[in-house]
Amino acid sequence: MNNNTSDPNNNGVTRTLSxxxxxxxxxxxxxxxxxxxxxVTLDGIGCALVGxxxxxxxxxxxxxxxxxxxxxxxxxGWGKSTTAPAxxxxxxxxxxxxxxxxxxxxxxxxxxxxxxPSLLACARNxxxxxxxxxxxxxxxxxxxxxxxxxxxxxxxxxxxxxxxxSVFGTHASAAAAGVLLGLDSERFEDALGLAATxxxxxxxxxxxxxxxxxxHGFSARNGLYAAELASRGFTGIKRVFEREYGGFLSTFGxxxxxxxxxxxxGLGENWEVERIVIKQHAAMGGLHSALDALAxxxxxxxxxxxxxxxxxxxxxxxxxxxxxxxLERPITPIAAQMNIAYALSVxxxxxxxxxxxxxxxxxxxxxxxxxxxxxxxxxxxxxxAAHNRGRCRLRISFHNGQSITFEQPAPNSxxxxxxxxxxxxxxxxxxxxxxxxxxxxxxxxLVLDIERQADVSxxxxxxxxxxSSPFD
Length: 472
Hints:
Elements: H1 13-23, H2 31-51, H3 55-68, E1 73-74, E2 81-82, H4 84-95, H5 111-124, H6 131-151, H7 155-159, H8 164-181, H9 185-196, H10 211-231, H11 248-252, H12 288-300, E3 308-315, H13 317-323, H14 333-338, H15 340-350, H16 360-363, H17 366-371, E4 375-379, E5 392-398, E6 403-408, H18 412-415, H19 420-431, H20 437-448, H21 457-464
Parallel strand pairs: 3-4
Antiparallel strand pairs: 1-2, 3-5, 5-6
Helix pairs in contact: 1-9, 2-4, 2-5, 2-6, 2-19, 2-20, 3-4, 4-5, 4-10, 5-6, 5-8, 5-10, 6-8, 8-9, 8-10, 9-10, 12-15, 20-21
């Protein structure tokens, strides 16, 4: 990777991105990108409200608060406050708590769980933050994270065993917080360098560990640290994306030909926030094509689980390695949400794959485990090309000797992204029984009309109030 890093005056992608962030204003952002940012924000908040009191979230709070103590940054859904870094960590954990949150299909990461915790913590430590400034900062984060991921060829990170989003999510958090802090170009370069040196995340956490839920929270916290340190003159790695020795792309992309130019390609013209997907299933994003294919087949031909002899599903290398391993009891909800055999089996039985389908009670049911051995996943190299990585082929064979096949080019939420009403419907569905309808409606109004809010403190207060658990 030749990036001319020996030239101290080199105006490479790091400095270009830093300058763009420092000069970014809301009037440069088209309405289509603003609208997607509002919807991603609302969706992330809904996921946080659902995730705040899940069993692993409660364990995280019980572990972190004694270490961090009391502060002035609220925890979503708890009625408690802690330090800014701890709040970013835990709020990110809540948003990513149940595989319901957004994902970027080409640079896999979950943007809201990285950006919103950083912004909420940063905003609470300022006198007043207007809604338009909050939205601008969110857009900065939603834009930067995917661009860094694209430079590492996104899904390749999953194939190599990295939890991709937590590797390049630190930059999303740092960019968002940096806008609220008003960093100049030089300080943004420091923040990006400080974020890069804190990047991490191992994908083996998907099998049984609670830590997978916390990975994006770690990155949200680390990006917040990066921006706050840079704002006070603490310097970070300069030209971090171009450095050939120990740089971000050269190290994480070693042997995989990272492309630094993708970080700034079409910057300010092509908006990555518009490609962020609002999930329609409570499962790992790579499995959504298969779940949509199953629904399509059932629309073509009526059948139920008792009719099925076997299910074969074909994926790209990244999805196959990310979502396929033989299941043995017992399994945790995180394993169920990541594994194609469980997700397809429960969706065939229940007709959907949402919160109830991944509860500990449902995971223990015998009808699901009777169906799981009938599912087999396969790698199809034809799907490995960048434009095909979301594609899958599903074949269902029946006891009567017949079979049906359907090829899904991408998740439906990528082909036809959910618009405002569909996202609102998901938000209301998720939060039903978790928060009162009056509170839900006010949060919805504040987020969807965020540019007109003189101060986001009312929104933060509403998010902080206690919530119920969807499992209670």
